[in-house]
Write a structure and sequence with these properties.
CATH superfamily of one domain: Rod shape-determining protein MreC, domain 1
Strand content: 15-25%
CATH topology of one domain: Thrombin, subunit H
Mean pLDDT: 81
Largest sheet: 6 strands, antiparallel, barrel
CATH class of one domain: Mainly Beta
Shape: globular
Length: 310
């Protein structure tokens, strides 16, 4: 056979395309481009919503065994424990009934004083009950996923509370699900009011991994803060309604060489073991809009003409 008729091309098995380094650079550039586009223009948000909607049936199917085991465990709960819980619930109900009677009297007096002073009344925000489906896989994010979304009227920024106090805030909303960031997350901050002294401050989530505590930062060492003080929402941020319990002061550390005290607080709500929550409408939804920063500035005087004549 003549040599010119032989196929000098390598077999398909030995053919190679772009090098591994070239593929890595292309994929890295594409990933950076997608991240920048998502952070600047939110291009991936509709894709996330579609994927979350498509995966919802699978998530519901996977959660069914967990819910079944939980229901079976609750059904097989011992009789003695159930009786103890019933007695404790009755005692708590009696204590709350006494407090409710006092609250009704205080509410009536508050309404009379507001009418006398012609102050704007406060109405409780509407609430939507939701169930916690699961916790986010990232232990540093401290986020929960609830079974209510845009179709149920949930909006981003809505406060989330349980029977004891504030749990977190809705940070991302999907058509059928919502993502809740707990108040103990490092990136979360909430304005609070000390009910004993009336002092306003801001409670930040702890930066420690897996921590379930809050911190009061930037308070002087001589600030009037004691262990056991109850912190409630101040309502000045226009998000959380005022008066909702947030945390109790657990420890106060004052050092002579430090400008600020180190104050650690324990959340009142069950941020680590909550199963049912209430999603409230943001408190600022029914408030008048804030005035523009330039509304109170006086009009600029006309510039004098050349020659000193106005």
């Amino acid at each position: 056979m003549p040599l010119g008729t032989l196929d000098r091309q390598p077999p398909p098995f030995f053919r190679q395309g772009a090098s591994a380094l070239s593929r890595l650079l292309v994929c890295s550039a594409l990933a950076i481009l997608l991240m920048v586009s998502d952070s600047r223009f939110a291009l991936i948000e509709p894709v996330r919503a579609v994927i979350a909607t498509l995966l919802y049936p699978l998530q519901w199917l996977v959660l069914q065994p967990v819910l079944a085991v939980r229901a079976f465990g609750e059904y097989t709960e011992s009789r003695d424990t159930a009786q103890q819980r019933e007695q404790a619930a009755q005692a708590q109900l009696l204590a709350q009934s006494v407090r409710a009677q006092q609250v009704e009297q205080l509410r009536l007096e508050n309404a009379q004083l507001r009418r006398l002073l012609e102050l704007r009344g406060q109405t409780p925000p509407p609430a939507t009950a939701a169930q916690v489906l699961y916790e986010a896989l990232d232990p540093f994010s401290r986020k929960l996923i609830i079974d209510k979304g845009q179709m149920q009227g949930i909006a981003a920024g809505s406060p989330v509370v349980d029977a004891q106090g504030v749990v977190g805030q809705v940070t991302r909303v999907y058509p059928l699900l919502s993502e809740v960031t707990l108040i103990v997350a490092p990136e979360h901050a909430i304005p609070v009011l000390n009910t004993r002294t009336g002092t306003r401050s801001v409670a930040f989530g702890s930066a420690a991994s897996g921590a379930t505590a809050l911190e009061l930062r930037f308070l002087a060492t001589n600030a009037d803060v004691q262990e056991g003080d109850l912190l409630t929402t101040s309502g000045v941020d226009g998000v959380y309604p005022p008066g909702v319990p947030v945390a109790r002061v657990e420890a106060v550390e004052r050092q002579a060489d430090a400008a600020f005290a180190r104050i650690r607080c324990k959340p009142v709500g069950a941020v680590g073991a909550v199963t049912h929550v209430l999603v409230l409408a943001p408190a600022g939804a029914d408030q008048p809009p804030r005035p523009s920063p330039t509304a109170d500035k006086p009009a600029a005087a006309p510039a004098p003409r050349k020659g000193g004549k106005p």
